[in-house]
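seq as requested:
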Amino acid sequence: MRANLPASLVAPGHPDFAVSSAILAELDQRAGGRGKLAQEVPALLREVVDDVIQTPRTGRRSYDELEKTEKTYIGTRVEIMLRALLSLPRGRLDAVVAGHDTDIKHTMGNNWMIPGEATDHPCILVAADEDRARCYLGLIVARPEYLTAGANRDAKRSISAAGFAHIRWIFADRPYPPNFWRTIPAASVQRIVSGRTGNERVMALFREVQDVPITRETVEGVARQKDFMRRIRADGGRGTRDLLAAEGILLLSGKYDGPLIRALGLPMGDFVAHTPADEGERQTARAAGWRV
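struct tokens:
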């Protein structure tokens, strides 16, 4: 998304203020209250993008590595997931909000492509900036004077430079979770995804990534097997937890090992791996029942 956004002109007296206020009020109500959209939408975007990249299966780590059709599908998924999140009914366009046929547009770039049928209708604008891990959510009534004069071969037009001032931002330039796999060296990713079995891949994950919270979804994606949580547990001494402990690595669960995680000064999450740094940490782990 463009670095410097103009201040929004959508305020009392603006021709779109009443419409955007009604839509914003319904979106907030459906999300569960003011501010909930800023909590829910960033996580939704991360989930959608990661589900298409599929690093554990493909080895790809970034949006730029996707095929053109996959990039297009991300926009479709955002529309579907946002409509599901807010229980929005379908209309002639993507949704009906506050009685208005409303289009939902998503971009991973600097602008949105507005189809001809959405002209003069409200649009929910969603944007994700993968490089900076920032996201945006806004409203615009797609009036012709806010759009570029030229259209692409699909008769879609983008928002003009002056038109950006007619976007009412729900939030802008807000952080959203970075792609977990882009925070890890490429060599580590390769060692993780090249494991032949789920156990091998999960063990490699916790060897390579320590002292960092790891989500259940990440572990599930790496394991790529049913009942992956059984492998995380002891599993008769064959599970990831016991095998890593034999190497001196603690695989801790935020649900069950919270006191030990806090005692070691580690960040809380679904899971975190840690190799005790000294005898003091080993004694702390032993007191919690670990054999290290």
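The mean pLDDT is 92.
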